[in-house]
Design goal:
By secondary structure, the chain is an alpha/beta fold. The protein has nine helices and eleven strands. It has helices at residues 16-29, 69-77, 97-110, 125-131, 139-155, 192-201, 219-235, 272-285, 299-312; strands at residues 2-6, 33-36, 84-87, 90-91, 115-120, 161-162, 167-168, 185-188, 204-206, 244-249, 287-292. The strands form two sheets. Strands 1-2-3-5-8-9-10-11 form an eight-stranded parallel barrel, surrounded by four helices. Helix 6 links the parallel strand 8 and strand 9 (204-206). Helix 2 (69-77) runs parallel beside helix 3 (97-110) and helix 3 crosses helix 5 (139-155). The N and C termini lie close together (8 Å).
């Protein structure tokens, strides 16, 4: 099982010096990947409901100044040599399809094949409007069309695509990504459309357990979600075991509640021994990647949490 951490894209920890120190020291500690979130602008008046809180409110701390995701990934690719870099997640309709495919391919080439493309359809309507992105109501269809375009550009010698939202032909697209057939695509989201998108095109499903509409806060609930994914993958004509699972964790350890919504023990809550046992159980379910938010006010505080996790939890795997 690979373990990742959420790299800051906003706030005081996201200075070039702090970011560089975090990723370099975490790579040296043995973490496998870093994740990077995606907002281009933060609207002043947000009416859209944030999917990952009970109140639907976007966290106040997330409204800080923030870097453009793909630029930050490229910057930190140059500071590291082994660490994988995961967009977590890239909101696909925010950027033009052909340009985005080119940026991602360039990052993969320049990083030596260390990019994982985590993707989502987005939730923040006001941000779509500010960016003049495609219609928010059509974001699922746009995401699917753009992903098909990405794959055509990354894999075809003479790429051609004619979809409802993006069309191209008679072009050269090179260099192709280092990873073949293309960088891994982790599909974020917990809803039916996200699962169907994973089943059709994803390398892995990449949910967060704290979505109140689709809770995955216990081992049983996540196991049921994975079983549904396997069924949909088979129905899509793919080998159900060919699609992996990566889990993003917001609440864990002593900060998590003791019980999940179904009355079972909260997944990855409790002591270090409890967390290690859950990670072993997740591995048995086919979860190959788990990443955590090691928040802190200073770089030292974040690194201390990560060192403690490696010592007390990861050492038991």
């Amino acid at each position: 099982m690979q373990i990742g951490f959420n790299a800051p894209t906003a706030g005081p920890l996201s200075t070039p010096e702090n970011l560089t120190r975090l990723v370099v020291e975490c790579e040296a500690m043995g973490f496998d990947y870093a994740t990077f979130s995606d907002h281009v602008v933060i609207p002043s008046d947000i009416q859209a409901k944030y999917p990952y809180s009970a109140t639907g409110e976007f966290p106040a701390g997330a409204r800080a100044e923030r870097h453009e995701q793909l630029t930050e990934v490229a910057f930190l690719a140059a500071k590291t040599s082994r660490l994988r870099l995961v967009t977590s997640v890239m909101v696909v309709p925010h950027r033009p399809a052909v340009l985005t495919a080119k940026i991602l391919s360039t990052i993969d080439v320049l990083s030596g094949g260390r990019l994982t493309v985590g993707i989502g359809a987005g939730w923040l309507k006001e941000e779509f409007e500010a960016l003049e992105a495609p219609d928010f109501a059509a974001r699922g269809a746009v995401t699917d069309d753009y992903l098909d375009a990405f794959i055509a550009l990354w894999t075809q010698d003479a790429p051609r695509h004619s979809g409802p939202h993006v069309r191209f032909g008679d072009i050269t697209f090179a260099p192709k990504p280092v990873q073949k057939p293309h960088p891994p695509i982790w599909v974020g989201g917990e809803s039916g459309p996200a699962l169907r998108r994973t089943a059709r095109i994803g390398t892995a499903w990449y949910p967060i357990g704290t979505n109140p509409a689709f809770p995955l806060d216990s081992l049983a609930r996540l196991g049921a979600g994975i079983a549904r994914l396997r069924k949909l993958t088979g129905e899509a004509g793919r080998d159900p075991q060919s699609v992996g699972v990566a889990l993003r964790v917001h609440r864990y350890g002593e900060a998590a509640p003791p019980k999940a919504g179904d009355g079972e023990r909260y997944l990855l809550g409790g002591s270090a021994a409890d967390m290690a046992a859950d990670l072993r159980a997740l591995r048995g379910l086919g979860v190959g990647h788990v990443d955590f938010d090691f928040g802190g006010a200073t770089v030292e505080a974040v690194l201390d949490k990560m060192q403690r996790f490696r010592r007390e939890v990861a050492s038991q795997l």
